[in-house]
Amino acid sequence: MTNFVVEELCQNHTPFYYYDLNLLRSTLKAIKKSVTNRQYKVHYAVKANSNPIILKEISAAGFGADCVSGGEINAALYAGFPSDGIVYAGVGKSDEEIELGLNKNIGCFNVESVEELEIINQIAAKCGRVAKVALRVNPDIDAHTHEYITTGLAENKFGIALESLDHVIETATALENIALTGLHFHIGSQITILEPFKLLCEKINALTQKYSSKGIFFKTINVGGGLGIDYDDPDKNPIPDFKSYFEVFADNLTLRPDQELHFELGRSVVAQCGSLITKVLYVKKGLTKQFVIVDAGFTDLIRPALYGAHHVIQNLTSDGPIETYDVVGPICESSDCFGKNERLPLTRRGDLLALRSAGAYGEVMASQYNCRQLPGTMFSAD
Ligand code: LLP
């Protein structure tokens, strides 16, 4: 659980992301403890948080990296992730990005279409390399999460449809500069029930069985990321239940002894260790409501505006009687709102608020709309 030291926070220019590195380290330890099978390899999804200090902690703990752009490949390498521990996904990889991945000799390209496969083959031939490739399959599973972050349904733009897989595998096997090494899946994000992962295992078993009967074996199976976190009570559940998550795969997925199972966890690794710290500028009394206007806006944390997400809001500097407020940012758009009818201790100008569980998809999604500055950072560790 994160303990905020207000005297230290006060010395910083707000708004800023506060990262509790002790909690990050405990989370990484919990993952490692839950991964008992040596065939399992966890890649951290860099898109969740690519802050260099966070990346260094994660690479030092021995994880691989899941990247979605050339920029992320460079950031991962710079932070010390080994190149063969990098997997590279994305529905629209540019030629330059493919070339970078080949020249850096990354572990695997997760490929989303036959069109992409042919381009990777051409570029690999030009560079005199063979690209290791996993095919991203769209397993058509409902992850029961927000429609913007569900990815495994047939209607989504991601992956290769099950019906086309035979053809794509044939093409991949025939291409000279492609080494087909695996299958890749990702069904969505912030998945809080384990049933969809069980369904995924069943689909994968059926597929690997079908292909092994044709003499096609995959060295790696990559099940993507998606494990959700407790946004409602970050103090009660600062570390997700990794044990139960990995057990679903241990109990339901059939692996051959020489196969590797890859995971791409993002949010569950970093979300709870980060909070956005913001200062109250004004407490404005409207006709029917009181508004707490803070100096952070959706440029600093866009999840509430974009997905209707709710982050617990905590007043770090008041223990007065409880009042009801709408907590809003300074940007002139109605969606710039962090919480409606929030129950907070009596709040005044100058108070510091923490928006909790903001370590994933927070700082990385910040923008400079309205010519605003990007949020700062502060790290705490023993
Ligand atoms: N692998 C692939 C192929 C992905 O597309 C993603 C996330 C991950 C792994 C990591 O998933 P995670 O373990 O973090 O759930 N901005 C949104 C989340 C977008 C997730 C996109 N893909 C949000 O703030 O909720």
Structural overview:
The protein has 11 helices and 17 strands. It has 382 residues and is of the alpha/beta class. The chain has 2 domains: 250 residues, TIM Barrel (Alpha-Beta Barrel); 109 residues, Lyase, Ornithine Decarboxylase, Chain A, domain 1, CATH 2.40.37.10. Strands 1, 11, 12, 13, 14, 15, 16 and 17 form an 8-stranded mixed beta sheet that branches. Strands 2-3-4-5-6-8-9-10 form an 8-stranded parallel beta barrel. β9, α9 and β10 form a beta-alpha-beta unit. The two termini are 14 Å apart. 46% of the residues are buried. The mean pLDDT is 95. Bound molecules: ligand LLP.
Q: Could you please say which CATH topology of the largest domain applies here? A: TIM Barrel
Total strand segments: 17
How big a fraction of the residues is strand?
Answer: 15-25%
Q: What is the CATH-assigned architecture of the largest domain?
A: Alpha-Beta Barrel
The proportion of residues forming helix, as a percent range, comes to 25-40%
Bound molecules: ligand LLP
Largest sheet: 8 strands, mixed
Order of helical and strand elements: HEHEHEHEHEHEEHEHEHEHEEHEEEEE
Name the structural class: alpha/beta
Report mean pLDDT, rounded to a whole number: 95
What is the CATH top level name of the largest domain? Alpha Beta
What is the straight-line distance between the termini?
A: 14 Å
Question: Unreliable stretches, pLDDT < 50, 5 or more residues?
Answer: none
Count of individual domains: 2
Query: Which overall shape is indicated by the principal axes computed on the Cα atoms?
Result: elongated
H/I helix tally: 11
